[in-house]
User: Fold this.
Amino acid sequence: MSDRFAVAAALDGAGWHPAAWRAASARPGELFSARYWTDLVELAERAGLDFVTIEDALTVQSAAGRGIDDRVDQVRGRLDALQIAARVAPLTTRLGLVPATVVTHTEPFHTASLVSTLDHLSAGRGGWLPRISLDESEAGHVNIRAVPASTEEAWAEAGDAVEVVRRLCDSWEDDAIIRDVVTGRFVDRDRLHYVDFDGPFFSVKGPSIVPRPPQGQPVVAALAGDDASLAFAAASCDVVFVTPHDVDDAAARVAAVRRAEQAVHRSGAPLVVVADVVVFLGSGAVATKAHLDELDGAEPRSDAAVFTGPAGELADLVEAWRQRGVQGVRLRPGVVTDDLAAVATDLLPELRRRGVIGEPGSGLLRQRLGLARPANRYARARQ
Amino acid sequence: MTKQVVLAVHFPGVNNTTVWSRPDSGSQMAFSSFAHMARKAEEGMFDFFFLAEGLRLREHRGRIHDLDVVGRPDSFMVLTALAAVTDRIGLAGTLNSTFREPYEVARQLATLDHLSGGRAAWNVVTSCDAFTGANFRRGGYLDYALRYDRAREMLETARLLWDSWAAGDPLADKESGRFVGRGDAGAFTRHGELVDIAGRFNVPRCPQGHPVIIQAGDSDPGRELAAATADVIFSQHSTYDAGRTFYADVKGRLARYARAPESLKILPASTVVVADSDDEAREMAREIRRRQVSPPTAINFLEQVWNRDLSAYDPDGPLPDIDPDVETSALAQGRATRFDDRLGVAKRWRGIAEAKKLSIRELVIEVTARGGFVGTPQHVAAEIDRHVQDDACDGFIFIPHLTPHGLDDFVDRVVPLLQERGVLRRRYRHETLRANLGLPDPVLPDAWLH
Assistant:
């Protein structure tokens, strides 16, 4: 197992607390501006984070997390996450960019073009977070398909979408562009390949419009908890986010991931297991969170553990998780304008001092995560 | 009053207009190529930078066409990234409305408009071929006769979604605790023949209200749709006489929709070659044409008309004496240009070749010529101005033949002359593309007027 340890941040609007937009530091009027996202991402890069994820959905947010409501006191609306990543790509050089995208209601061919292009724009720092949707309101926005019959069906379709994206990435061999002036040929078409995917949900001919991305295949990550999502992650992803409730649960979650890998007969490198935690950092964090809870009317529910306290104690928790086989953390800032800054100024220097992480890396996102550049399946087949 | 010239640049694409065989031809994929041309156009006070889109690699005789540039990035991702390295130039791209959902199209446009501070434009295109459909869930589902209905419904729905948030939302008022003014922000309903969706759009009203709409349809219903709905027409009528006829026809349709003539800009595609003397420019243009039509490309063009394998023919020899194959389906797929009357085209081409004593390659160079402006900077600036002032067009979409430096000469040598003539701005007057083009603001829906 690699001794690398990844630190990431999950970006979502003003932060993961529903009332985060009302915190003193928040910039709620700028959530739809380039300046806001540029500031956050540049902060994350300067701090030395390995990557950021950017949430997305094809509907407005709701307090219940599904369906729609008519509340006016929470953030509603979001920009397309892939485009946010594209907008910040030219302004960064080291940070991995991993936007979410809803695969249930998107054409896999478009997803492949978008994700491959992000990897080109960022010189190999692109990834993506396939999301499923069983939300009636989301399905009502698009004419592509009805709501999946079950979670299992939705994850199975997501698995097909990832397979198509990976095949399309491979549909161009790395050296397909030859620019051979003598024969007048721009590409060697023997190094371009039809993917001929034919599954129960869709079929895709190929090849891709976009030449093979710098990473070969951009990094695929997913949040997984139940059996269906774990099976999807084990079969289709490079990175998995898990949500341990405490130190002992971390070991159990890692074990569940490894069991899922065995169950699907995963070949190749094992999943990089990254633990999620919502964080409110600093000496005033308890009071801040209590205030936001009061503003929102209740303590928000969270699938991930919620940490409130000084950065040193969070570093203790991270170290304890690491000892139980977790290979990284994804921090979900409670109030992004407070807590991402605290991650940068307090947590990362502390983790560096303890030797949990090294100096900020660079290069391909895959390299930073200890993942090899995948061989091209079609190139091997041709030889 | 003197008309101002509207200028746009089309990044070199994947047909043989683009010359890739020269040593100074750069990458069609590197972001630095896009950034260079967009910045150069911005330096030249261009209105917008344009990117086309592809959804399937072109084929010829059942194999991937390999003689032109192949492969490109997703246009809206590149345009969004370009917003980071430019300030004022408009960012325009094609999105096919056949293989996309209105919700995602409206969202991509609105996102680009927010992230660029009001510089987004959409070239609305519909396609109906099963060839492209093979890459998508629904396949080639759209009936050819319905293509303008699809475009119209997509556009109407996109505008419905762009209008679905009140102009003042989000309030984002920490004090009162109201993030949005209305609990149903983004609510919309559309029950159309081809688009039937309802729910909540998730992007607030964008800086331009509505991104700028571009269309390229040339048939009668295409022109009518543009007159009813477009802000810009990407026209193929670049010559003076054809331009004036087209201009009068389309602008004449606007009154029917209570639109002013200035509210629709007509921009033909064109090319420019400048040099110190007219003779030198003509020689450069000839050299470019020979690069664009390489010997294999000449045979390839002929095969598109003859619909036969002509690989045994000498590109520098005479045209084939056998006739085109009109029985089997077309060899070439995924191209914008199609040859329907093969026998007629072949007869015409033979006539030209005999009269002018042209080889296959020389003939293809001759018959695929697109005109364009060739000459000294003074000549080119005067010609552009004349076309615009005489209502042959409102400006041009220039297609350079070289990546990434193909626009440099024009900006360095012709733009200053247009500025001296008083027909091109010396600095951008406005922040949004819509305002710089002098287009009217979209009308706010009644619901948002207080």
Notes: The first helix of chain A runs from residue 34 to 47. Chain A is about 35% helix and 15% strand. Chain A touches chain B through 81 residues (CB under 8 Å).
